[in-house]
């Protein structure tokens, strides 16, 4: 049985039905409101049945694949076997020759985030609509506390997420430390469904935390069964690197890459790993961008430490040549932190993903349009950091990893969906095609091709860092909790339909931690009971 009772439904608002066609959405790049998407003809929305049969496809889970039919009722997978017979009132989708897979789960996004004097142009609705068009049916976003207040941050993000059109969960960032924060972490875990906290080792003067806080945070996370996550770059080093570039007169986007080289990412990754080892807490390293960081993770894993490494799509397939582009607007698109690295890091990260050193793929989707990026026209330090990816992640990972022969089809499901559900403790409700799981399903046609352009994407941003990329593996259908939301190049999404998914603590990565703790204590052979020397 799945523990259904712990999931809370937040009331949908506003209840607007939208039919979005690719055509209507393109060219609308305003920041606010749904209106700029344009309303399509919504008459066929009511026809989508609560009963659905996916016929003849190859059903893929992380550990197995087989040809079977999948029958869905009321948003839940009801049956998986061959030749399911149904009555006429059931909508039937033919998936012959195609893959039927769990919808993607993106572990790393920033929607409606206020950052560097701007707010990301994708809010929960537009970012999620884009994600659904690309086969991702759930994401986990980062709540930022309000002046260090976690409860206030959580409530603010629930409000931001009211217009959600797909399921979502939250991580939370810890940006300062005191008794209140420590207490509130427990409330977040016990009552609010948050089971992971992120610590920034970079962004000196704003989010950055020192080692003392990192240690306290890791201890607290471990006690609560919450996963500690780190943005691993040496913040003092970054500040010094930025000053060095400015002193050299390097003020353009290339200065961003030059100011925070891989050595700073490697150092912070190694430090976080060693501190987590000292505390004996599991650790999750977000957006691993360099060989330097990846090798620290590999080394720790070889020694038996539990470290999870998350590459992001941009780090897996882009290289830093863009940052030297003579057109500022093009170069600035690629500014994110840690930076996109020199060619070579991309291939090494792909290899690490294929061998399991890195386990799941995120995007760090954090979109700013050209106008917002131009805040840093005179100074790369003011360019809002972030790239797109929620819509592109699934097809690009398929094309880069499966089509190239680096991983199997089952591995694709593991790294884009199942492992994320397991690490954040919502498996098998999410991340699997099993009886009783949520019907978050995609149909991928391995023979069809995709092409990515800013004119046809569904994000509100007016650029795309994957502009012009073509590949094999097209997401033809996306089903979100039993409803077809993407088919024939058309989105049918509903603002307010997405639910907040609570994530309970103590996922599998905590299993056995207490045994390691007792082994540690008994290895100390201390205190030594000494008797006073008799004179
Ligand atoms: C895709 O190609 C493979 C191999 O040629 C074939 O078996 C399969 O049926 C094709 N699928 C579709 C949907 O065309
Ligand atoms: C944090 O914010 C919540 C909700 O806004 C408020 O009720 C609470 O008193 C605040 N906590 C502290 C320590 O200021
Ligand atoms: C904790 O919150 C209370 C108000 O709820 C406040 O009076 C106190 O100063 C806070 N403590 C710290 C260390 O910020
Ligand atoms: C680096 O990226 C550019 C732009 O996408 C591409 O043309 C080039 O081939 C890449 N370099 C290598 C060595 O892959
Ligand atoms: Zn991020």
From TrEMBL:
Residues 1-30 form the signal peptide. One of its GO terms (cellular component) is cytosol. It comes from the Eukaryota. Its EC number is 3.5.2.2. Keywords: Hydrolase, Metal-binding, Signal, Zinc. Homotetramer. This is dihydropyrimidinase. The lineage of its organism: Eukaryota, Viridiplantae, Streptophyta, Embryophyta, Tracheophyta.
């Amino acid at each position: 049985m799945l523990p259904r009772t712990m999931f809370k439904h937040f009331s949908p608002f506003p209840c607007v039905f939208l039919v979005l066609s690719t055509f209507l959405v393109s060219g609308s790049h305003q920041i606010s409101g749904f209106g700029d998407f344009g309303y399509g003809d919504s008459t066929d929305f009511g026809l989508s049945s609560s009963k659905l049969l996916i016929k003849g496809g190859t059903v893929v889970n992380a550990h197995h694949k087989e040809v079977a039919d999948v029958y869905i009722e009321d948003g839940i997978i009801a049956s998986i076997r061959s030749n399911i017979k149904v009555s006429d009132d059931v909508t039937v989708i033919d998936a012959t020759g195609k893959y039927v897979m769990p919808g993607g789960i993106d572990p790393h996004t920033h929607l409606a985030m206020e950052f560097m004097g701007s707010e990301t142009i994708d809010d929960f609705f537009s970012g999620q609509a884009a994600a659904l068009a690309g086969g991702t049916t759930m994401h986990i976003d980062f709540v930022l506390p309000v002046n260090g207040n976690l409860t206030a941050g959580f409530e603010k993000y629930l409000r931001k997420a009211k217009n959600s059109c797909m399921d979502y969960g939250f991580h939370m960032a810890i940006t300062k430390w005191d008794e209140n924060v420590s207490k509130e972490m427990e409330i977040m875990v016990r009552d609010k469904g948050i089971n992971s906290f992120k610590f920034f080792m970079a962004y000196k003067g704003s989010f950055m935390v020192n080692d003392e806080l990192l240690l306290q945070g890791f201890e607290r996370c471990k006690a609560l069964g919450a996963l500690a996550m780190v943005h691993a770059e040496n913040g003092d080093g970054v500040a010094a690197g930025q000053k060095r570039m400015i002193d050299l007169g390097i003020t353009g986007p290339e200065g961003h890459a030059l100011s925070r080289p891989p050595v700073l990412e490697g150092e912070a990754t190694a430090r976080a790993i060693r501190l987590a080892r000292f505390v004996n807490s599991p650790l999750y390293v977000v957006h691993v961008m360099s060989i330097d960081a990846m090798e620290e993770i590999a080394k720790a894993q070889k020694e038996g430490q539990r470290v999870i490494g998350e590459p992001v799509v941009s780090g897996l397939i882009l290289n830093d040549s863009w940052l030297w582009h003579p057109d500022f607007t093009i170069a600035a698109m690629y500014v994110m932190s840690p930076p996109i690295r020199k060619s070579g890091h991309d291939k090494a990260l792909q290899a690490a993903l294929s061998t399991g050193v890195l386990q799941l793929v995120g995007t760090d989707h954090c979109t700013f349009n050209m106008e917002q990026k131009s805040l840093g026209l005179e100074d790369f330090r003011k360019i809002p950091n972030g790239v797109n990816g929620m819509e592109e992640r699934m097809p690009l990972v398929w094309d880069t990893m499966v089509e190239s022969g680096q991983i199997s089809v089952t591995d694709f499901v593991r790294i884009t969906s199942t492992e994320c559900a397991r690490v954040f403790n919502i498996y098998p409700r999410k991340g699997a095609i099993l009886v009783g799981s949520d019907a978050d399903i995609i149909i991928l046609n391995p023979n069809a091709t995709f092409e990515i352009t800013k004119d046809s994407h569904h994000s509100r941003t007016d650029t795309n860092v994957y502009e012009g990329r073509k590949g094999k593996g097209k997401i033809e259908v996306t089903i979100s909790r039993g409803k077809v939301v993407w088919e024939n190049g058309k989105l049918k999404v509903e603002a307010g339909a997405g639910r907040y998914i609570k994530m309970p603590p103590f996922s599998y990565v905590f299993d056995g931690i207490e045994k390691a703790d007792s082994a540690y204590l008994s290895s100390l052979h201390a205190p030594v009971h000494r008797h006073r020397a008799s004179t």
